[in-house]
Design goal:
The protein is of the alpha+beta class. It has a single domain, classed as Orthogonal Bundle (Arc Repressor Mutant, subunit A), CATH 1.10.10.1150. The protein contains three helices and five strands, in the order ββββαααβ. The strands form two sheets. A three-stranded antiparallel β-sheet has the order 2-3-4, with helices on one face. The chain has a two-stranded antiparallel sheet with strand order 1-5. A hairpin with a 2-residue loop joins strand 3 and strand 4. Helix 2 crosses helix 3. 21% of the residues are buried.
């Protein structure tokens, strides 16, 4: 049977969040950020860590891109393409899911 990871297609409307089984932590011993999941560890670069820290399930990708474009005074289109591609790659590997709407 396939895993329970919900496959998502990342777009600017997506609200990505780390699933419960994945954690972004700072490894004090190695002095690097790591993305941990069962039996897997990734060491994202500095920019990827910044993007992952914005993946709170509240902000959508569009808001994250706007924030990064303003912070780095960079061209929004290039940032959007890079952020969407990075998040899609992580989602495909099971490190990201999409926040679900809260039901009343």
């Amino acid at each position: 049977m396939a895993g329970r990871i919900r496959n998502i297609t990342v777009s600017e409307a997506s609200r990505p969040i780390l699933p419960r089984h994945a954690k972004l932590k700072f490894d004090q011993t190695r002095q690097v950020w790591v993305l941990l999941a069962p039996e897997r560890v990734l060491a994202p670069d500095e920019i990827a860590v910044e993007v992952l820290r914005l993946c709170d399930g509240v902000r959508n990708v569009e808001q994250m891109v706007d924030h990064l474009a303003a912070k780095y005074t960079a061209e929004r289109g290039a940032i959007s393409a890079d952020v969407v591609a990075m998040l899609q790659d992580l989602a495909d590997k099971g490190f990201l899911t999409e926040a679900r709407e809260k039901t009343s």
